[in-house]
Specification:
Helix content is 58%, strand content 4%. By secondary structure, it is mainly alpha-helical. The protein has three domains: 59 residues, no CATH class; 194 residues, no CATH class; 123 residues, Recoverin, domain 1 (Orthogonal Bundle), CATH 1.10.238. It is found in: Mitochondrion inner membrane; Mitochondrion intermembrane space.
Amino acid sequence: MAMYTNRVVRCSKTNPFFTVLSRNFGNNSSARKWYQHPTVRYICLVSGGLLAFTAATYRNRPKVYALQLRKDEIADKAIKLTARERRFIKFASVEFDGQIYMTPQDFLESVVEQEPRPRLKRKSLTHAEIQQLKDYTPPLKHGSSQLFRSLRDKGIISYTEYLFLLSVLTKPHSGFRIAFNMFDTDGNQRVDKDEFLVIRQLLGGSLKDRDLDEATRQAMEKIFSFAWKGKRGIESKEGEEPGEHDDYVDDEQGLQRKHKVDTTLQIHFFGKKGDKDLQYDGFYNFMKNLQTEVLELEFCEFSKGHERISEVDFAKILLRYTYLDTDEYDNYLDRLLDREAKEKGVSFDEFRQFCQFLNNLDDFSIAMRMYTLADQPISKDEFSRAVKICTGSELNSHLIDTVFAIFDEDGDGLLSYKEFIAIMKDRVHRGFK
C-alpha cells in the first residue's frame, strides 16, 4: 500500500490533473476512502504513467523543418543556374501552357529592384487572355520611352527576349547598327519576323553548355523549354511516339522553345499578323527608348519629382550594382562629401549622357591603354578628351569633377582608370558578371 501511495504522490507532482483530483478528494471523507482503495490508486498510477510516457515521447520526436528544407533545396538547385536564369525565374510572374514569362513591369523591376513584388504564385494565363494582350501592344511607330511602364502587366516577355533586352541596355549607340545588321541576314536593310529569331544566335555566347545532373535538366526543361534535350544532345529515341509538345520547335538556344504564342516584342515589331518588316530607324528608336526608360526609372527613384539629383545620389546610382563591401562603399561616398564644396546637382540629361559613356567603356579602356601605355593615372583633361573620342560628345565639367571626387583616392587630381573601369563595368552589367 505504501508503495502505491508513494507512486501516486510522485505522479501527482508531475501531472496537474492528479494534483487537482487529490485536492478535491481531500475535502470529502467518503471520497477519500474510495480514493485510497488500492485498485483505484493502481488505475491512477497506470494512467499517469501512460500520459507521462506519451508526453516524453512527443517531446523527443525528431522535428521536421519542412520550410527550411524547401529553402535549402531551392538554394541547391539555384546554384546550378546562371545568374540571369535565376533572376528571370525570380521575377517572372505569369505562365502559359507550362512556360514562364515576364510581364513588361517584371522586366523593369528586374533591372532596377533587388527583389520582386510579393506574390503568392504566378498567374496562369488562358488562351483568351493571351489573345487580349495583342490589343494592348502598340505598333512600333507609336513606341516611346514609356512603353514598358504603360503596358505594365499587359504583355509577355520570353527568356530569350529577356536576354536580348538586357543586351540592349549595355549597347552603345554606335553598336545599334551592328546589332541590326546581324539580324538582317539577307542584307536588304529590313528584318522580318523569321530573321528576328536570329536573336538566339546572338545570345549564344552568354549561354555556355553546362554539365547538369538529371534533376536539374528536368527542372530546366519544365521551366524554360522542351528543347533543352535537343540543345544538350539528348535527342528523342528512335521510334519514340510523338508527344504533345512536338509542335514546339527547337530554338537552337536551349532555354526558350518556339512557343505557339506571339510575345509582346514580336507584336510590337511585326504587327498582330506578323507580316510587317522592322527597319533600322524603328529598331534604333526602340533601343534608345528602352535605355531612356530604364534610366528614367533610376533617376526618378532619387529625384523625388525634382529636376536634379544630388551628387551623392548620383554616386549611389553608379555604385548600386557593384561588388564593393560596406566599408569600401562608404569610403567612396565619404570622399565625395568631403570634397564637394557646393551642391549643384545632376540633371537627367547629364546622367543619361554619362550612362551612354559607360556603355562605351571598352572603347574608353582601349583609348586609355594606348594613350598612357604604362597604365598611369589620368588627369581630368585626359579623361574628358578620351570620353569625347569614344562618344563624340563632351561631359559637363561639373560631372567630371564629381566623378574624380568619387574615384580619386588620394586627392591628387588623377584617376586610376583601371579601377574606375572595373567598378563601372559592374554598373553597366547591373551585377551580372
